[in-house]
Structure formats: structure tokens, C-alpha cells
Amino acid sequence: MAPVIRPATAADLPAINEIYNFYVATSPATFDTQPVSLDRREAWFTERSALGLPVLVADADGEAGGWCALSPWSAKKAYDTTRDESIYIADEFRGRGLGKALLGAVLQEARRLDVHVVMAGVVACQEASLALHRSLGFEQSALNLHMGYKLGSWHDVVYLQRHLWREGG
Ligand SMILES: CC(C)(COP(=O)(O)OP(=O)(O)OC[C@H]1O[C@@H](n2cnc3c(N)ncnc32)[C@H](O)[C@@H]1OP(=O)(O)O)[C@@H](O)C(=O)NCCC(=O)NCCS
Fold first, then answer.
1. If 65 and its partner were Cys, which of 12, 17, 93, 136 is the partner (CB 3.0–4.6 Å)?
2. So what's the pLDDT on residue 160?
């Protein structure tokens, strides 16, 4: 059955943060190295709400099993048509199609918002994330070497772009 994707509410923020902080502690998927506090997560959510940027969650077994959001790529004004995408699925719900459904839904929101380009920065060792993004039409624009040091290793970052403007939007 297709997962239910819906806009996040304030009630989802503890789950969103728990999902994210698991990867902060265990994975180079995010270059944060310290857990994000709930206060900081609430400020993050308020900022996106004020900018009209989507924060979507996928329901799994009656709870938020993953989330995907768009953020500003840069504060500089001419970048307003470019957005940065983030996606995290709870470890226990990975591989069940939540990521693909969430990213597809965020791309739909991006089209609705007339976003021109969606960016994704993916750590080069994250095969699942690279496969997910490529399966939804993201194309590699750069491979930047040794961009961060985490969990005892240097990590390269693949930058991918989804060119919504090529769809004629
Ligand atoms: C990467 C992530 C978002 C994928 O979400 P998911 O729900 O596990 O993935 P899905 O089940 O929707 O599968 C999506 C695609 O990725 C591919 N994929 C999933 N797991 C994979 C794996 N372990 N290895 C290779 N490809 C994989 C699938 O083949 C699928 O493509 P297809 O349906 O066209 O065949 C999720 O695994 C995750 O949160 N990982 C840890 C955090 C992370 O890396 N976040 C991204 C930061 S940029």
C-alpha cells in the first residue's frame, strides 16, 4: 500500500528530530555532529512555514516514519528559485518505499511553488540516497572531495540537481 504523505505539523517535530538525530549520531549522511535540540527544530519548522516551504512526513505504522523538506539554497535573492532538499527515513522503515513517495511529493510541491532547480547534497558513500535521487531524475552536477570529516573518515559529497525548468515549468 502506498504510504500516506502529508504536511508536517508541530506535533511531528519530536519524531522528525528523533529520526534526524539517529543519523547525526551514527552516519555521515548529515554533517551535523551534535544532536539538534527540539527548540532548534521548532525554529527550523517556523522558518520554513514563514517561507512557505514544504515539510512533509510519511506515516508508517501510525507515526511519522520519515520526512522530506525544502530549504533556501542561499539567502541571496537571485537564488530564490533554487531550493535545497533534505530527506531522512527512520532506520526501521527504510527500504519500504517511504523515501521515494516523500521525495516525489516534495518535487510536486516544488513544481507548485515554481521552483526552478532542486539541489541535493549526498555523501558519496550513501548508495541508497544516490539511487533514490537518480531514480527521480536528479542528475549529478559535482563531486566535491573531502568536504567533511565525521566518524573517523573524510567524506566526499555528490551534488545533484533536479531541473524542473526542463519540464517546461
Ligand atoms: C536514503 C533514504 C532517504 C531512502 O529512503 P527509503 O525509504 O529507504 O528508500 P525507498 O524504499 O523509497 O527506495 C528508494 C530507491 O532507493 C533505492 N534503494 C533503497 N535502499 C537502497 C539500498 N540499501 N541500496 C541501494 N539502493 C537502495 C531503491 O532501489 C529505490 O529505487 P527504486 O524504487 O527505483 O528501485 C533512506 O534510506 C535514509 O533515510 N537513509 C539514511 C539517511 C540519508 O542518507 N538521507 C539522505 C541524506 S541526502
1. 93
2. 98
